[in-house]
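Hey, can you fold this?
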Amino acid sequence: MAAPATAAEVIRLWESGVKDETSEFQRRLRDLCGELARGDYGKIDSLFAMTIDAGAPAVLQELAEAFASMAVQIEAREYRLGEMLAELKEANRRLEDANRTVTNENDTLRSQVQRLTIEIDQTRKEREVSAIVETDYFRTLQERAQAMRQRQRHGETTEAASS
């Protein structure tokens, strides 16, 4: 038996088979479909068993088969979605771990760059001071300063001797 292709076909099949609403088969089918609608797939086998129930009208057997097939497809889709969700959660956990690792590494690198910047600045300062100190102009200034100090000391010594 082929499963009905559309919802309209399912309704047509149901309405054509529902002559006596008190029939036990129809009540069981309605109850099982209600359980499926609530997400309870535990009795799918009972629904499939109804598809071969000799005492049931063929149209209701087809309807039971259609609902059972839909339930299996929904259950399989929910299972796949659950698996995908678990995989996504695991991937998210790994990404969060990687993010923490990268953040820690960035902090470490930032600290190292700061230290290197300070070292580079110190080295540059020493090089610049050395370049200034080694010029002829600076040597001349040093010599003048030394001569001025000597004159000042010599003048203090002369004043002390004359007093």
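Oh, and this one too while you're at it.
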Amino acid sequence: MKIKIIGIVAGIVFSASASALEITPIFNLGYDFGGEDLLIVHSYYGTDKITSGSGYMLNGGVSLWLDDDSAIQITAGYKDDSQTYSNGSTGFSRIPFDALYVTRLDRQIRLGVGMTYHMSPTLECNISGVCSGSLSANSATGFIGEIDLGTPRLGTDHEVFYGLRYTNISYQFSTAKVDGSSFGFIMGFAFH
């Protein structure tokens, strides 16, 4: 599946004329909600859950501009849902690689669709006297949909955008398949 994604992105990029293609940096951060419960911890302060879709996300990469209003965004990052306690910690982390086709519907609204590939999904539980170790899932491929509201580019070379993001993905652990789909908020900083 990884080769197909790379082939599709490469085909789109190379089909654009060389004079129209501009490459610029992009940075995103956000938080996603959702997925299935992977770990539930009861403590003196309440109950904490580690889920397969939730977590903070930070990524960066490049936008390959096909024209003034559409681009292919390719990013790599880190996504983590974790809790820290006085006697240990729990968490679910993964390394997402995203490829999105993004287009502006007008000066401020951006719409994006694409694919994501999550490497090294790992559930960890290290709480003294309770658990010690990790469990890894297979790398997984999923789909992304995103809608953003951006600052208008009135003669500037950058824009800030805020949006909503949906990710549809599943993780295969050794004994079970887990739905990691999520909804989230994203904020980004793009140059163009």
